[in-house]
What we know:
Layout: H1 2-60, H2 62-70, H3 79-94, E1 99-105, E2 112-117, H4 139-144, E3 152-158, E4 161-173, E5 179-190, H5 191-232, H6 245-259, E6 262-270, H7 273-280, H8 282-299, E7 305-308, E8 313-320, H9 326-339, E9 342-344, E10 349-351, E11 355-361, H10 370-385, E12 391-393
Parallel strand pairs: 11-12
Antiparallel strand pairs: 1-2, 1-5, 3-4, 4-5, 6-8, 6-11, 7-8, 9-10
Amino acid sequence: MAQFTNKTRIRVIVVTVVSLAVILTILHLTLLLLVRNAIEGYMIDSVRGISTAVARTIEFNVDQYKEFSDSEEKDINSEFYIKMNNFLAELRDVGDLSYIYTINPTDEKDVYEFILCGETINSESWIRPGERDTQNVGRRGSLLKDVTRDGGFKVKSRDWGDFIISYVPFTSTDEEDNEVIVGWVGVAISSENYGSYVNRIQIVLFIVYALILFFVILLVRRLSGNMVESMLKDKLTGAYTKRHYDSIIQTGIKEALRSKQDLNLLILDLDHFKKVNDVYGHPFGDKVLSETSKVIIKSLRQGDYFIRYGGEEFIAVVKSSKGVNILEIAERIRVAVSKNTIYNQDLNNFHTITISIGISTYDRVKKCNVSTLVSRADKALYEAKKDRNKVCVYTPELETTE
């Protein structure tokens, strides 16, 4: 019995784990989508907030900025440039930004010149003040047209990578007290940062999923025994249900062939059980079934299978090696059942019941199927039922018996 139960238990564990894995996968994809959107929103807010803060800071010093940007030499050693360059560099490092800079319009359409840059002076990524942006003619112009004073952003794909870029204008007033745009603060953050954030969260999620799977497997392994018992076995008798009898007999045949043993199928039927129900009632009838099943199970060995085939009819699948007489095993069951006394609480007396058994043995040469094996045992049972409280072994002669 244990082998079939263990196989079913393994199936339960596998199905549970696979089902949980599917659920976790769906959950992960849903969470990942939410997280990606949240991170993207956070990064957009971050670059927009930084560029807005820098734009407002420059507006406090807009006269110095205009004086520096309008000068022809644009002295990078000036106090203003060094102070602003260091300020932008610090923001870039703290905010984990890719670039932070300012641009001014030029007399050429959609061409802008860089003024401030948060990179180390004379480094490879540093842009000299006054250098014109010739790589993005038209593209940056179309972007800046949509930028309001509150700032705008775009996810830009460029030759050297994907960035979330925010542009925020900073202004001054002209002689007529009109507000005019002096330039724009540009802040760019690489999509690699975005991927890095997502990957960190995914690692945490995978660790959580692994822990969930681990504890679920432990829990299922502990509970699967009881789960399998309730799935496979009849609560009243403790026998396997008829639903699984075909699989159980097939399993028994394979085990017997592998171990080179004989496989015997016993059909056991309680004698006059209908009378027990009619005279003493169904509750006592259930007690008779339960108590008799316990006696039969106790008489079987660990590797045998016990199945409830009908109301008071059972099947036992018994393997036997050479020198073991299946008739003796069946007789032992019959005698044990007949000697067992069952207490009737309503009548305050004890009741006994007998059992008839039909036996068929798997033919290794002709290799009959399950239905044939059961049919032969049923014919032997029919013969035993003529006298009752008897064991009968199938023989070909029973095929002609009416």
